[in-house]
Every structure is written in structure tokens, then in C-alpha cells.
Amino acid sequence: MDLKLNNKYALVCGSTAGIGKATAISLASEDAKVTLVARNEEKLKQVMAELPNSKNHSYIVADFSNPEELQHKVSEFIKKHHGFHILVNNTGGPAAGPVFSAKLEEFDKAFTQHLKCNHILAQTVVPFMKDEGYGRIINIISTSVKQPLDGLGVSNTIRGAVGNWSKTLANELGQFGITVNNVLPGATATDRLTEIIKNKSAKTGHSEEESANAMKSTVPAKRFARPEELAYAVTFLASECASYINGINLPVDGGRTKCL
């Protein structure tokens, strides 16, 4: 299948590790020109060197705790270089814990890093997408928008807000050839999952291996996802081939989510 990304510019957030990095590599492998976004410049340089045809790509150093700075840096990049046909919104999830004991600042921080940053990035890149008659906004969220996950109270809350924001945006932008979709990772072999397993192990007294196996047992596939398996879904949604897929939540979770 020819995904026809050779003339497309992609902005990939949180792209120095995990799903974000895998997505950047996948898009670059399909000949998209990728701009990485993250806060650690050294890690950005390392990922740049790993991308196919590395000279075609670029990066922006920005912190998702500061939406105004993020918007300014992306806007300045666009002025000096080019706009983007593809936006992949992705950033690290909120800390684990029950929702009842969560502090207000935890909600504020998560809302800023996820919904606010997604929103200002969409506002920044959509004018170019409209001019081109082509746009793909893909948000990496969580299966918790379909089925809340125990022990992830703040994440469940904020992910739901992002899901409804993106569905509303899809309805507004579809007429311009712009689609907005969400990819919902299940348990994926990333640093965040390692941290979740460590926390479970500490709380239950079970070993990390036992905790990991218990999580795997809830997945019909009986394993964790590889980051590149999420990246393939994102890459397809970013392509011409997905032009009539809009406003959906796509779980990539090995069948773990119980609802349709």
C-alpha cells in the first residue's frame, strides 16, 4: 500500500522515546519530512540521527508544561521553514494514583500538558492544512476514554476531556480535508509502563515480573504492545489512505478493552 507521505511535513510531539519516537521513525520511513518536538535537545539529536534520510528532518526544543512557549517556538519554525500536514499530539501521561486523593495541581498540570498543548498546536498548524486541503491531527490518548483504568484517576479524567475535544474538532474541520482521530494505546512497552509496573509491585509486594505477567494476563494477546505497533496505526491515519476516517477512537491494545 502506497501511503503517499513523500510530500508531507509531520510534527511529532514527545518524540525522543516510546510511541513518539517510534512514530517519527515510521513516518520518516514512509518518506514524510519529520520535525521532532521534545524538551531534551541531546535526545532530539540522537533520534534525528536514527531517522531514515536524517538530513530531511528537523527538531524543536520545547517544554509541554509551557503552552505559550511551545506555540511561539512552533509558530517561529513555521515562519522560517514550512507548515505541517500532520500533527501527532503525544506527551507523557499523568502520575498514577486514585482520583479521590489527587491534588488540584495534578489536574492543572495534566490539563495543560495534554489538552491545552494539543489545542494551541492545532490552532497553529491548521491554517496551513486548510491552505493545502490536507490535514491529519492524531492524538495519542489512552483506552481509558472507553474504559477507565484503575489507579489512573487524573489520567482517566484528562484523557476523556481530550477525547471529546478531538471529536468536536473533527466535526468542525472535516469540511477542509482535515481529519482528527485518536489512537488509544493499551499496555505498551515504554518507560511509562515500566514505572506503572514498579508502582504495582511496590504496592502489592509482588515482584515486577509477577506484576507484569498479571497485566499481560488481562490482554487476549497475552503480551504488551511494541511502540512500533502503535506507530503503524498512526502512520496509516496520517496517510491519504485514511482520508474518510474521521473522529474515531482507535484502540491498539491487543483486545484488552472490553467494550466495543
Automatic annotation (TrEMBL):
The family database entries (InterPro entries) matched by this protein are listed as:
NAD(P)-bd_dom_sf, SDR, SDR_fam
User: What domain of life does the native source organism fall in?
Assistant: Bacteria
The record, for SUPFAM superfamilies, names: NAD(P)-binding Rossmann-fold domains (SSF51735)
Q: Which family does it belong to?
A: Belongs to the short-chain dehydrogenases/reductases (SDR) family.
Full protein name: SDR family oxidoreductase
- Which species is the source of this protein? Gelidibacter pelagius
